[in-house]
């Protein structure tokens, strides 16, 4: 009986000791003194891990830097580096998360010098997921919208030629999709009206389409089947004038003669232009099967580039992180960060560390530099609060 009592007492003491000590161990990292320069060390270690493919480890290190040093000038680039890590890791889920992270960053820093690069990266996220032209075009349309948004918000950007080239590339893909569907409706379903609608999408939206002449010819055929030869003749005349080297030119001329319509002369400047280069049998076969592709999509992030050394990446990040101010999102989420001054309660001499603020602590002294009126207002707020303790968010 006595041994049982002794065991019970020992067990109780052990529980009390573990409860007291457990709390201290849990907050050990959070209560450590912030070390000057440690934020940059954590950033460097995180970038090193990401370059090696240890994405989770890299994100953990950089998140530690963000949470421990909220006033660090590296906050902006650290948050951007986390987005880069998801982009570089790839895969549907990671690319979706990268898009969320980049978008969140843009909400805080819409006028940052890196904003155009971040917006382009969001477009590239969708371009990386573009598949065959005869499949779902959701990602291609989202990429087109993102690229047009860049030119709308930043019309004078030095990357304008690159963005316009990307838009043309995406629109070639989308136009090919519409033409493929129009062919299907006209040739296999004998639906002239459906083919007309699909080709009109091309004629109205994609004037630079490489097969614009075929879209004109197919549109004219569809209208002709619906007995609208006048509008069809306009399409055929346009084809003859602007596309004298087209394989559909002779067919267009024959149709105009059949309807007793005047055959126009080709534009001399268009005639003088060299005809499109012909492709061999194998390239034509590949083009027919796979259609246009979105090429040369970068696999590097905005900040992190595997082709650069860690020192170069960190140096560029330090330059990019110097002095810009956040635009200030209205309600940042739990996972968002800014470089705004952190007004959270701090322990004296422990910048960047979380503390527990307990109302009614019994201390009647007012800290130096604190307005007594504001102190009394804070006490009134605490009295009206139903919470037993306020903890740093």
Please sum up the structure shown.
Helices cover 60% and strands 1% of the residues. It has helices at residues 2-26, 38-51, 55-68, 75-89, 92-108, 115-127, 138-153, 160-188, 192-205, 212-225, 229-242, 249-258, 268-272, 281-290, 310-320, 372-384; strands at 356-357, 390-391.
List strands and helices in order, with pairings:
Elements: H1 2-26, H2 38-51, H3 55-68, H4 75-89, H5 92-108, H6 115-127, H7 138-153, H8 160-188, H9 192-205, H10 212-225, H11 229-242, H12 249-258, H13 268-272, H14 281-290, H15 310-320, E1 356-357, H16 372-384, E2 390-391
Antiparallel strand pairs: 1-2
Helix pairs in contact: 2-3, 2-15, 3-4, 4-5, 5-6, 6-7, 7-8, 8-9, 9-10, 10-11, 11-12
Describe the 3D structure:
The protein has helices at residues 2-26, 38-51, 55-68, 75-89, 92-108, 115-127, 138-153, 160-188, 192-205, 212-225, 229-242, 249-258, 268-272, 281-290, 310-320, 372-384; strands spanning 356-357, 390-391. The chain has 393 residues and is mainly alpha-helical. It has a domain at 35-128 and 297-325: Alpha Horseshoe (Serine Threonine Protein Phosphatase 5, Tetratricopeptide repeat). α2 (38-51) crosses α15 (310-320). It starts with a helix and ends with a strand. Mean pLDDT is 79; it is low at 21-32, 279-290, 323-370 and 385-393.
